[in-house]
TrEMBL record:
Pfam family, one: NTP_transferase
Gene3D superfamilies, sorted: Spore Coat Polysaccharide Biosynthesis Protein SpsA, Chain A (3.90.550.10)
Domain of life: Bacteria
Protein's name according to its UniProt entry: Sugar phosphate nucleotidyltransferase
Native source species: Benzoatithermus flavus
Domain Nucleotidyl transferase: 13-244
Length: 265
């Protein structure tokens, strides 16, 4: 059997949480819809996949799902100039940029539902006959080669693959010098440790590890059981990775974008 190409592998994006750590700016729209530059963060995340040929996305929504749905339902109008013929009730779009060749499904998976429950509900409806699928969150950015991660996943016989990253320290690091001065590095990477980067690929049997119940949490029993059974492999990545979980995280990625130095671009 031929291995699937990236275009054949659906990517499920978990974007139904409330983003409570971001305060008021996430109250009226889901965290993945907060802007980085002129585009919502969700579009940046999808582009992390799109550059490697992935084109099928299932957005597992919850909190303020209508904001995500409206954005993609009106994507052409929001990202193009257009002319409206009022008498004929027609619209002609004039593209300012090439629109991505993506198939995007907006799947409402309930409010107050944990990540595993969202994934189970969306996959039951939209995985189709695909033998492999990707999963990520609506707040992670990376310059990892996700096409290479898929190839790694397909090359071994385990059920799951996770992107392994050097986690950033929550604290700045001081190096003390003999003269009493110090050098400061803001949130250095903790080499020698490995954490989940939140970019996964799974074989279809992973569905048996999930439950569509509200309380099923992907990061708890499903992944813990997969690990206990020796069914989870790690694809190491030592480049850029960030999780936009707090206002400080958001300020950091905005600064990178505005400087023109965003590694995930």
């Amino acid at each position: 059997m031929l291995s699937p190409e990236p275009a054949d592998v659906p990517i499920f994006v978990l974007c139904g949480g409330q983003g409570s750590r971001l305060g008021e700016i996430a109250a009226m729209r889901p965290k993945p819809m907060l802007d980085i530059g002129e585009k919502p963060m969700l579009l940046h995340i999808m582009s992390c996949y799109g550059r490697f040929g992935f084109r099928r996305f299932v957005l597992c929504t919850g909190h303020r799902s209508e904001v995500i749905g409206s954005y993609f339902a009106n994507y052409a109008a929001l990202n193009s100039d257009y002319t409206v013929d009022l008498a004929r009730n027609t619209i002609s779009y004039h593209q300012r940029e090439r629109l991505p060749d993506w198939e995007v499904t907006v799947a409402f998976t309930g409010t107050g539902v944990m990540t595993g429950g969202r994934l189970a509900r969306a996959a039951a409806r939209y995985l189709g006959d695909a033998g492999h699928f990707g999963v990520t969150y609506g707040d992670g950015l990376t310059d990892a080669d996700l096409g290479a991660e898929l190839r790694f996943h397909l090359a071994h016989d385990r059920i799951g693959t996770v992107l392994g990253i050097d986690p950033p320290s929550p604290f700045g690091q001081l190096t003390l010098h003999e003269d009493g001065t110090a050098s400061f590095v803001e949130k250095p990477r903790q080499t020698g440790q490995t954490a989940s980067g939140g970019f996964f690929f799974f074989r279809r049997p992973f569905l048996d590890y999930l439950s569509p119940t509200d309380s099923c949490t992907l990061e708890a029993e499903p992944l813990a059981r997969l690990s206990r059974e020796g069914q989870l492999r790690v694809f190491r990545h030592q480049g850029y990775w960030s999780c936009v979980d707090t206002l400080r995280d958001r300020e950091e990625v905005l600064a990178l974008w505005e400087s023109g130095a965003a590694p995930w671009k």
